[in-house]
């Protein structure tokens, strides 16, 4: 008895073991479920465009320091060694004469400092401009992130749409297969015409052709999304349905949010600020410039011919210098005028951009509201079309309707499902457009 129990136990363990080995490949090949959040996160992490934008931002921010604005002193170490070979011929007032061929050595070195103490506050304006350029680079990085998010979400929604298209075609095909079975049985038993059977087979083949094309479109949509996520093009995955209305603001909320957070508008405003700072930089050239100059040096001169055979100097020099340009051909005045014109251009561009954003926002909002109404109608139409097809199919089975009536009911459901799929896709795209224009997409 004990031996039998042990044998049964081993047999049960072996069965579970072989079952596990058999199912292991299926487990390992389980399809990845890619959520929208994971897709966006992966793209933001791996996108080459974003990485380049971030490196450009880092390079711009590295330029923001006081030394680059001229606010710190400049210190140079200078050194020089000179040597000469010459013939000396001298006749002095006391009657003595010197005639010889001599050599001389003259090494010099010094540490020199130049520090601008005042330049009409140009250096402060330069530092502000560098900071502004760093901030503009940050905004440009956010714009690149926003564009990436938009592209990823659009690609994700396209995969959703193609997946739904495949699903509704598979649903439709079941009805066509049932219709084919009914017409075939009627024809074989002599209760129906072969024409109905052939027509049903043709309609089924047409739907199967559309299904093959839809599956190919789904594969290509996945390739596009994989490309945006910097993944192998053939990596398979499944998407998670994104349903429901996530974003439903008023028009006033949208306008207020867009004025404050639209990335393109923010970037143009920052460019205007930088242009105003540039005016301050240019205008500073009309004011005097004061510098502090200092040097600590050593020099030596040695020769075996001449009046001084050995001369050595060590000393510290300190001095203030001031310059004030009085006239330079009106270059500064023209530069100031040009800078003001550039600022006015940017302000006009900002006003024009806001009008464009406001118009795009209102159109997107109107489309969004329309898409919501259409989605509701298409959901109702789909329920009616599906119920109508079921009733028509039952009547056809019982001989209470013709194949033309059934065919019309099938096409109505097909059209309804196609419109419903597009309505679900359109409302997500409209929502995405509103979020992008209002600056809600990337904060």
From TrEMBL:
Q: Could you list the residue ranges forming a coiled coil in this record? A: 211-271, 368-395
Q: Which GO terms describe its cellular component?
A: cell outer membrane; efflux pump complex
Keyword set for this entry? Answer: Cell outer membrane, Coiled coil, Membrane, Transmembrane, Transmembrane beta strand, Transport
Q: Where in the cell is it found?
A: Cell outer membrane
UniProt GO molecular function = efflux transmembrane transporter activity; porin activity
Q: Which InterPro entries match?
A: OMP_efflux (IPR003423), TolC-like (IPR051906)
Is the keyword Transmembrane assigned to this protein? yes
The domain of life is: Bacteria
- SUPFAM superfamilies reported for this sequence: Outer membrane efflux proteins (OEP)
Q: Which family does it belong to?
A: Belongs to the outer membrane factor (OMF) (TC 1.B.17) family.
- Its recorded name reads RND transporter
